[in-house]
Amino acid sequence: MDKNIVWHNYAVEKTHRSELKGHKPVILWFTGFSGSGKSTVANALESALHQNGVHTYLLDGDNVRHGLCKDLGFSDADRVENIRRVGELSKLMVDAGLIVLTAFISPFQAERDMVRNLVEDGEFVEVFLDTPLEICEQRDPKGLYKKARAGEIKNFTGIDSDYQPPVAPEIRLNTGENSLEQSVQQLIDYLKDKNIIQ
């Protein structure tokens, strides 16, 4: 970093923003195979939180690639850069006092840990959508597994690109066994138990 770049301290800090909003800021990092339910669960949770006056923002993998990360492909290096950018953006949103929900395959443990290390203890909650690959492939909501099996898509997670399951996620969801309502309730219970929301 250029030695002429100096951090500027603000009069209004994260604690002030958090107090104003009435809840703690946190990143809920949804990770899992394509089709595991990341976006579906995150979207349903955000709706439930919004109805209860909680200030949130949802960052979705596909949506982010329409703008912030539209210059990136799906090589390992591009996946790492994708998560780095999203991590830095999430950190800013936590500083703004928001509950940030991120739905990204994010296949590498090192990158998820990198985001965890950007924020304070307790501000990163790894939510592992532990839905078996077979179920995700049966769902195939976007037809991507079919294309990957046919060789039309390269570097597809679970087919010809690795996925490293979380080592010790704060929350583990299996959308193959649990309903959407049960998954959302499990997340809300966790947030209340940790005094993130009331």
Automatic annotation (TrEMBL):
Chain positions recorded as ATP binding sites: 32-39
Decide whether keyword Cytoplasm is in the record. Answer: no
Tell me one Pfam family matched here: APS_kinase
Record function comment: Catalyzes the synthesis of activated sulfate.
GO terms for biological process? hydrogen sulfide biosynthetic process; sulfate assimilation
Transferase keyword on record: yes
Q: Which organism is it from?
A: Pseudoalteromonas luteoviolacea S4054
Residues forming the APS kinase domain are: 25-173
> Its domain of life?
Bacteria
Provide the family line.
Belongs to the APS kinase family.
Task: List the protein's name.
Answer: Adenylyl-sulfate kinase
Q: Which sites are catalytic?
A: 106
Which pathway is this protein assigned to? Sulfur metabolism; hydrogen sulfide biosynthesis; sulfite from sulfate: step 2/3
Task: Provide any one GO MF term from the record.
Answer: adenylylsulfate kinase activity
Any idea which UniProt keywords this protein has? Answer: ATP-binding, Kinase, Nucleotide-binding, Phosphoprotein, Transferase
InterPro entries associated with the record: APS, APS_kinase_dom, P-loop_NTPase
